[in-house]
Amino acid sequence: MYAKVVVDVPNVETDKPYDYRIPEDLRLFVEMGSRVSVPFGGRLIQGFVIAISEMTELDKVRDIESVLDLTPPLTDELVHLGSRLSEEYICRQYQVLQAMLPAALRSNYGKELSLTPTGREQILLDNQEQKVMSYLERGSVDFNQLCKQFPEQLPFIRHALKQGWVEAVQKIKNRITRKMISYIRCCLTPEEAEEALRTLVKKAEKQRLVLNYLLSLDHPVALREILSTLKVTYSTVKALEQKKWVEIEEVEERRDPYAGRSFVNAKPIAFTTEQKEVIDEIVVSLQVNQFTSYLLHGVTGSGKTEVYLESIAKCLDQDREAIVLVPEISLTPQMVERFKGRFGNQVAVLHSRLSHGERYDEWRMIREGKVKVVVGARSAVFAPFSQLGLIIIDEEHEGSYKQEESPRYHARDVAIARAKNHHAVTLFGSATPSLESYYQCSKGKMKLLRMQYRVANRPLPPVHVVDMREELREGNRTMFSRPLAEAIRDRLQNKEQMVIFLNRRGFSTFVMCRSCGNSLQCPHCDISLTYHRSNQTVRCHYCGFTEQVAEQCPSCGSTHIRYFGTGTQKVEEELSRHFPGIRVIRMDVDTTTQKGSHEKLLSEFRSGGGDVLLGTQMIAKGLDFPNVTLVGVIAADTILGMPDFRAAERTFQLLTQVGGRAGRHQLPGEVVIQTYNPEHYSIEFAKTHDYTGFFAMEAKHRFEKDYPPFYRLILFTFSSPNVPLIVKLADEWNRKLQILLPSSIYMLGPVASPIPRIKDRYRFQCMLKYRNEKQVLPIVKKMADAFSSRHKKDDILLTVDVDPQILM
User: Fold this and answer.
1) Side by side, which strands form the sheet with 221-222?
2) Distance between CA atoms of residues 123 and 248, nearest Å
3) Over the stretch 452-462, which tens digit does the pLDDT of each residue have?
């Protein structure tokens, strides 16, 4: 039997399957989707089995060294999907298959050293050298571990390797294994135990203590519990084991991120007419067992989550499985509560705030068929289910569903591909759908479902747009307009809560010297440094460069340093200054770095521990607080100035979503938007919650300029420390593509990227616009592979992004 294996070699020339023989003793374990260790050149590397056959066309084939998992981590369907995605997103197949696994299953490589027969015969060694050789007599020892143990003996270790006294073997190691807990149980009958206690000498008081403790409980006890409760050492327990009175056994313990948490069982609710109509439509598609794709356009507060829950319940009734994707980690705690409350232990959670071990254990629950529902962020779309019935993508318009590093897949497209394979249903929900999805509905490729009213017919909150230019003319130089300040005071008096939104973290957006006009720039990127007052640093939000704030201008030596712009830290300080006693809970990247910090801050706000929830995009969507009656948007214009054709769409979506946090329950809500562009159509349509009006206007602009959804895009970014080289190569690339591609296709560029330098690498980009002509992707992939092969020794990188969400 032979296996076709794609290998872990970051090279386009090796992006193809290689034939390996399956040894007799591994035949029961090697299947399609298995991870294997294979010899490649002079080393061992990891690979994925993508096919098995009884024949090979090669004369000489090497053997698979070992299988890394007893159960293949990838299903047959995921293996086939990986092949397709590598073609669609122009990347190596191995990268796609690796992206489908939790980080814990991504192996690393190491060397293990062991003594050779010649090494065992060496006698003319000094004391320290002899210690190294004695250490190696235990068996195979990790090279790094040996170096840490004997840092002074590195020259001798190198010498021993050269002399052949020690041999090095490359090993593939999994980063995370199952968590095992040692348990102790008594092996004696009561009569035998009584006799054993009688024979114990007086000095063995600790052993007597342990034996009595085990007899009193009559069930196995965790070793750590014995050691901490009885204050005994491991040697005491080991002595009892040597007497064969107790037995120590390893038992796996699942790392459950929600252990100890109780979830209230969700009570059945009475659905609105709109909810019932939507659920009935979805249930029909589930029953006929055929692929259908729906876009659920429901206003904020219309009860989309209840539709998701009921649709999943119907899916589970058919003994099928469901995946629910949420766009940001901040949504997960609230979502998890709803889903665990409804489906209990049938739910697994996958997101990046879990530890590697927790994520691995949750993933294994899915692979072993112990759960039926997965709630998670983007990569959860690859959950290894085999009976998929339903895939839900909440807030489907979110840009975070597109991965920004290779493989640059979009979860929406992956969901559709998987649903087709399983004859399943996809349900994309949003109050502000992406133009691409809404356009698909108009072309009949997706079915549109609407929910136009909030639950209990609660009104959408009135939106007041404040012209900040007028505020300035009237002498108001604070960051709070008079209507917003008055609304904040009103809420404080009524003991109601508020959400204040700002699309920037930090204290100030840039730092400038008033004497010479020099602004502090990142030394590695062409971007201003952001001032963070909490630790008195300036930081680059692209490469992470950080330094302490200088008291003098590095350019002219002046002390006239001023902080311009507004960040969340500054808004927090200004709120405290203008409204004494106000309790502010700030949520941004800086306050949510620790594990569980999202949940902690949101729970504190929900329980009334704060008057204001202040934050960036992570608070703009999905959150539901009964006592929030005011939403304030400090600066609605921050995205409008971005060099991106989606700037208006993102502004409309953000304002509509953040406004939807107000008045979701009994208390009526209000939204105050501060802007310097009140006439812009995205703000005008957001004011009236008019999505269809916005879609018509934005679609007209996109059609005139040949942008999605009417055209598809491919962004090519060249980066190198050598500017003349990338300009030359980008220009050559552009001209060659224009020759190879049909005349109906547009090529733009090359031009410097909007941020021309990141991490000391200069960046140029070209963009291709096409109408989905089938020959485009194969030609681009062939050219990209040839480029990588030709320039692998040059310090130049080509990034190909199909259907990019970010053009920076």
Assistant:
1) 221-222, 180-186, 246-252
2) 40
3) 988 888 888 88
